[in-house]
């Protein structure tokens, strides 16, 4: 490929120099040639450019780099196998004649997908973070512990009812639209609402919206402040997760979520301001539950 690249580069240089010659001829005598002897200066410039073009033609093209490179190339052993794409040449309509270029583009796109997938597999295989305290080797040597995924619905209801009784300003409603897994609809005062999807006793998904918005699991809030709270709720969901103590994990998350009852009243603990970049403190510390702005959080 290197000799062929050199040949193509020589042709590219020649085309650029020829294009420059025609640009000079099209422009004619310019103001920078001056008034004295301007015709002579123009002819000298044209002669210099023509000499460069002649040099490229003599020493680079014939008999030069291009001919030597073409002579050194090995012809293909046989015709290329184009498969079913050979039938594209039989199309007579103008719309279908462009299919071949689109097909080539799709092949290139597929090759990039394979390349990026291989890189992703390499990176993910190095990631040791798992939502479990057990590995495959230890699971073979000991009896498998009860998973937080496989919890009877009655146990989940008892945990939720216990949490609901702790807070008078937070209303929790349980429904099961997807088989046995619970979905909570939480109303926090007149501040905001949330939908929390469970799998057993493990929190799978959280969506936070404003008090007057319609709740669902699929669309985010139209207000930026509640979109920020949703992002932080996802972080808290992963932070409090515990496969060995699932009930404690749910209670800790609910306690953290209840701290947003003062979302619009408490100032930031670091800057002491209620608003920063037009937003209240949307972050709550996982340990102390103190409010912070996104830019001020520790």
UniProtKB/TrEMBL annotation:
Transmembrane segments: none annotated. InterPro entries: Mediator_Med27 (IPR021627). Keywords: Nucleus, Transcription, Transcription regulation. The keyword Transcription applies. Pfam families: Med27. It is found in: Nucleus. Its main location: nucleus. Belongs to the Mediator complex subunit 27 family. This is Mediator of RNA polymerase II transcription subunit 27. It comes from Timema podura.
């Amino acid at each position: 490929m290197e000799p062929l690249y050199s040949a193509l580069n020589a042709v590219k240089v020649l085309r650029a120099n020829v294009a420059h010659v025609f640009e000079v001829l099209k422009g004619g005598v310019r103001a920078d040639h001056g008034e004295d002897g301007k015709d002579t200066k123009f002819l000298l410039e044209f002669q210099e450019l023509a000499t460069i073009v002649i040099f490229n033609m003599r020493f680079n093209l014939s008999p030069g780099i291009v001919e030597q490179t073409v002579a050194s190339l090995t012809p293909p052993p046989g015709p290329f196998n184009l498969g079913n794409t050979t039938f594209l040449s039989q199309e007579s309509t103008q719309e279908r004649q462009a299919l071949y270029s689109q097909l080539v583009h799709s092949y290139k796109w597929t090759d990039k997908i394979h390349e990026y997938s291989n890189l992703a597999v390499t990176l993910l295989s190095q990631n040791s973070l798992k939502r479990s305290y057990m590995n495959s080797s230890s699971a073979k040597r000991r009896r498998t512990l009860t998973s937080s995924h496989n919890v009877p619905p009655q146990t989940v209801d008892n945990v939720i009812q216990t949490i609901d009784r702790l807070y008078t300003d937070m209303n929790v409603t349980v429904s099961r639209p997807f088989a046995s897994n619970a979905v909570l609809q939480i109303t926090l005062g007149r501040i905001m609402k949330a939908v929390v999807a469970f799998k057993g006793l493990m929190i799978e998904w959280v969506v936070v919206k404003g008090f007057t918005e319609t709740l669902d699991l699929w669309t985010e809030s139209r207000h930026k402040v509640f979109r920020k709270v949703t992002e932080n709720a996802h972080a808290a969901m992963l932070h409090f997760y515990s496969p060995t103590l699932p009930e404690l994990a749910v209670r800790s998350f609910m306690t953290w979520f209840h701290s947003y009852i003062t979302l619009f009243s408490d100032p930031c603990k670091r800057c002491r301001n209620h608003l920063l970049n037009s937003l209240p403190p949307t972050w709550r510390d996982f340990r102390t539950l103190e409010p912070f702005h996104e830019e001020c959080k520790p």
